[in-house]
Request: fold
Amino acid sequence: GVRYWGNFVANADRKAEPIWPPGKGEKVFVYLHPGYRQFNGLVEQLSQLNFRTLVIAPGIPKPIMDRLGNKQLRISGKAVDMEAVCEQCRVVINHASQGAMTQVFRLGRPMIMLPNFVEQTLLAWRAGRQSLGLMATPDPKSHRYGRMIERLLDSPEHFEAAERFAEKYRKTPFHYQDLVDHIHTEIEALLS
Reply:
């Protein structure tokens, strides 16, 4: 009996366009914190696969970016426009934070979720139960990222579930100013 407006993306319009590595392979987008204990292992695995991978790692030191990046994998510490990312690629890998999950699912893309904390694990588990993506096993040492990506790409049910989610919430305000304007309108209506 309540209206749920969800969370929003602050300053989304100011973020940069994603710059993918050149080539013809499937694009893979990764947004993970460089302090994630399996970050180096994930990046090293992805750099050996035939995907065009863009890794966004906030606060990553330049020497690590230079050491881990190659012609198939680009690393940056700067945020990019997620709408552009989801228009340009089909695979998103993330920690399963509420903001990122909401944004990616609202843009009609499933995710590979690598939770870092209990709350993220619970969110990832619930999203996985709804076929919105794949939750990685709790033991990150056993992760085979290439297999997870192929499994997601070969699974129409995950893309269909993400599209249903996006359709359900398509008219819900998403960007900060839209949400503020909408809340203002709702408050005015309640007061009158």
